[in-house]
Amino acid sequence: MKKVLLSGIIILSLFLIVGCKNKEIKEVDSPEVIELEGNPTTGYEWTCVAKDEKIAKVESIFKPDETTSAITGEGGTYLFTVTGLKEGKTTITCKYARNWEKTDNDEERNYNVIVDKNLKVSIEENNN
């Protein structure tokens, strides 16, 4: 009985090893990050959107500046993590504005994004 059980385990292990060798394993590089300074207590916030959301995903967090005292109205850094979803090129548009009004203080930045076949993300600011 032990020999039969041991033989079954060995055969199953061989099938698993052969099956794993046939599958291609893709290595995904860590996502890239766009960092933009801002102060949401003024009502202004950065928002970034990919033109083609099937190529790249954009996620955001706000990191307040480190301080030794609790200061109201302190700024910080918006961190936009860009993760490649499929190979291709797209543009990310970032806007610093109040969502309820349009003013001369609004700012816009554009970034060219390339995602390669391994889903590695390259970002370059488009100054045009």
Please give a structural write-up.
The chain is of the alpha+beta class and 128 residues long. The protein contains 1 helix and 7 strands. The protein has a 4-stranded antiparallel sheet, with no helix packed on it. The longest helix is centred in the first third of the chain and has 21 residues, at 2-22. The chain is globular, with a radius of gyration of 24 Å.
Proper CATH architecture: Sandwich
Number of helix segments? 1
Give the SSE string: HEEEEEEE
- Give the spatial strand order of the biggest sheet: 2-5-6-7
Radius of gyration: 24 Å
User: Can you count the beta strands?
Assistant: 7
Chain oligomer state = single chain
Largest sheet: 4 strands, antiparallel
Helix content: 10-25%
Roughly what fraction of the amino acids lie in strands? 35-45%
Overall pLDDT: 81
Structural class designation: alpha+beta
| pLDDT < 50 stretches | 2-28
Overall body shape: globular
CATH topology: Immunoglobulin-like
Number of domains: 1
Write a brief structural summary.
The chain has 128 residues and is α+β, with helices and mostly antiparallel strands. The chain has one helix spanning 2-22; strands at 32-38, 45-50, 56-64, 76-84, 88-97, 107-115, 121-126.
Topology:
Blueprint lengths: L1 H21 L9 E7 L6 E6 L5 E9 L11 E9 L3 E10 L9 E9 L5 E6 L2
Antiparallel strand pairs: 1-4, 2-5, 3-4, 5-6, 6-7
Identify the notable features of this structure and list them briefly:
Immunoglobulin-like, 7 strands, four-stranded antiparallel sheet, 128 residues, alpha+beta, 16% helix
